[in-house]
Write a structure and sequence with these properties.
- By secondary structure, the chain is mostly helical.
- It contains 13 helices and two strands; from the N terminus they run ααααααααααααββα.
- The protein has helices spanning 2-6, 20-28, 39-66, 74-99, 101-111, 124-154, 178-225, 246-263, 265-313, 320-351, 354-358, 368-381, 399-421, and strands spanning 388-389, 395-396.
Length: 422
C-alpha cells in the first residue's frame, strides 16, 4: 500500500496537488501563510517563520562566517566557503520568496483555473506528466538531500578529535565539554536539515510551475493540430468550472462563442488557441518575474560552491564519509542548476514546434479570414520563448548554460589547485 502513496493517482483538474510535498514542508517551516485566514492569524504565522529563520538560518550562517577569522590556508577556506555560500544564497532566496509569497500563492491558485483544464482525452497526457514530474522532482531532491545530511552528520565520528558537521565558530570551547559539544552538534544538525528543506522546497516551486507551463504548451500544440478537423462533439468542459479564475474563463468562452456564431467554428478554434497561448505566456512571465532574482543568485553561487566542493573532495586528508558527503552535496548542487536549465530548454524546444503543429491542422480547407487568423497566430509563436533570469545580466536557462557553468567551475578549480601546489 505504501507504493500507492508514493506514486499517487493524479486528478488532472487539481494540478495544485502535485505540490503537496512542497506545501507541507513550507507550511511547517513558516513560509506558507494560511491563504483563507484573517490578517492577525497570518501575522502570527509570519512571526513564527521569522523566529525559525533567525535562529536556525541567520545565526547559523553567522557562526560559519565568523569561522573565517581562524582560517590558515586554502583548504580551510574551501571547507567553510562552500557551505557558507549555500547559506548566504539561501537567505537571499528565502527573503525574496517571503516577499513574493502572495504572488506565489496566486500562481498556484491560477494553476487550477478552468482555462488550464484538459478538454479532450489526448490533452490529459501532458497535464498528468507535468504533475508526476513535479512530484518526482521533489522526491529526488529530498532523498539526495537526506543522504547528504547523513554523510555530514556521520563524518565527524571518523575523526580522533571532536568536530562539528560544518565548520563554524562559537564563543565556547566545545572540545572540553561533552555536553556543550552535544548541544552544538544537535543545533547544527537541525540547521542543516532545515536549510536543506528550505532549499528543495522553494527551488522546486519555480521548476514545478515551469513544468506545468510546458505541459500546457504541449496541450496547446494538441489543440492546434485539431483545428478544422471534425470532432465527435464540441470541446466542452468535462467538469463543472470551479476556482477563483472562472470569471476569466467565462469571458474567454463568451468571446469564442461569439466568434463561432459570427465567423464560424474553425475561426473560433483559432481564437481559442490565440487566447490560450497569450495566457500561458503571461503566466510564464509572472513566474519568471517572481523567481528570476533567486534563480540568478543560485546559478552564480553554484559556480563557486561546485568548485569549492570539488576542491575539498580532492584534499589529502579526506575520509570516505567526507568524500561521500561531498559527492551527494555535489549531486544536489548540480541537480538544482540542471533542473532549472532543463525546464527552460524544454519550454524553448516545445514552443519552437508550433509551426509544425499547424501543419497537422486542416489548413487547406480554411477560408480567407481563418487563414489570416492562423497566420497571425504563427507570427505570435515564431517569437523565441526563452526563460531568462537576472536583472542587469540576463542568463538564459538552457542546457548550453548548464555546460558553461560546469566548465567555469572546473576552470576555477584548476586555478585554485595550481595556487595550492605553489
Amino acid at each position: 500500500m505504501w507504493w500507492s502513496k508514493l506514486n499517487p493517482r493524479w486528478d488532472a483538474y487539481n494540478r495544485r496537488d502535485s505540490f503537496r510535498l512542497q506545501l507541507v514542508c513550507l507550511k511547517y517551516l513558516g513560509l506558507w501563510p494560511p491563504e483563507d485566514s484573517d490578517q492577525s492569524t497570518r501575522n502570527r504565522y509570519i512571526v513564527y517563520g521569522w523566529v525559525l529563520r533567525v535562529v536556525f538560518l541567520h545565526l547559523y550562517a553567522l557562526t560559519q562566517a565568523l569561522y573565517f577569522m581562524d582560517v590558515k590556508d586554502i583548504n580551510d577556506i574551501a571547507n567553510a566557503l562552500f557551505v557558507l555560500m549555500t547559506q548566504v544564497t539561501l537567505i537571499y532566496k528565502l527573503e525574496k520568496f517571503n516577499y513574493n509569497i502572495c504572488r506565489i500563492q496566486a500562481c498556484l491558485r491560477k494553476l487550477n483555473c478552468t482555462l488550464y483544464h484538459p478538454k479532450q482525452r489526448d490533452e490529459f497526457g501532458p497535464v498528468l506528466r507535468s504533475m508526476s514530474g513535479v512530484f518526482w522532482l521533489m522526491i529526488f531532491l529530498m532523498f539526495v538531500a537526506i543522504f547528504t545530511i547523513i554523510m555530514w552528520v556521520v563524518s565527524p565520528a571518523f575523526d580522533n578529535h571532536r568536530r562539528l558537521p560544518v565548520p563554524a565558530w562559537f564563543p565556547v570551547d566545545y572540545h572540553r565539554s561533552r555536553t556543550t559539544y552535544g548541544i552544538l552538534f544537535l543545533y547544527q544538525t537541525i540547521g542543516i536539515v532545515m536549510s536543506a528543506t528550505y532549499n528543495f522546497s522553494t527551488d522546486t516551486m519555480f521548476s514545478g510551475l515551469m513544468l506545468h507551463v510546458n505541459g500546457q504548451i504541449v496541450r496547446l500544440g494538441s489543440m492546434v493540430k485539431k483545428i478544422g478537423h471534425e470532432k465527435g462533439k464540441d470541446r466542452e468542459m468535462l467538469v463543472a468550472p470551479s476556482g477563483d479564475h472562472d470569471c476569466e474563463w467565462k469571458a474567454i468562452r463568451l468571446r469564442i462563442e461569439h466568434h463561432s456564431q459570427v465567423y464560424g467554428k474553425t475561426y473560433a478554434e483559432v481564437t481559442e488557441c490565440v487566447l490560450f497561448h497569450k495566457d500561458i505566456l503571461s503566466f510564464s512571465n509572472e513566474v519568471q518575474d517572481i523567481f528570476q532574482g533567486s534563480i540568478f543568485a543560485q546559478i552564480c553561487a553554484s559556480v563557486i560552491i561546485i568548485c569549492m566542493t570539488l576542491l575539498q573532495a580532492t584534499g589529502d586528508d579526506v575520509t570516505m564519509a567526507d568524500l561521500l558527503g561531498c559527492a551527494f552535496y555535489l549531486l544536489v548542487m548540480t541537480s538544482q542548476v540542471f533542473i532549472f536549465c532543463y525546464v527552460g530548454n524544454e519550454i524553448s524546444y516545445t514552443t519552437d514546434k508550433f509551426t509544425e503543429f499547424v501543419g497537422f491542422s486542416n489548413f487547406y480547407m480554411f477560408d480567407k479570414l481563418t487563414s489570416q487568423a492562423v497566420i497571425f497566430f504563427m507570427q505570435m509563436t515564431l517569437k523565441d520563448v526563452h526563460i531568462k533570469v537576472g536583472a542587469v545580466l540576463k542568463v538564459t536557462l538552457n542546457l548550453h548554460t548548464f555546460l558553461q557553468i560546469m566548465k567555469l567551475s572546473y576552470s576555477y578549480l584548476a586555478v585554485l589547485q595550481s595556487m595550492e601546489t605553489k
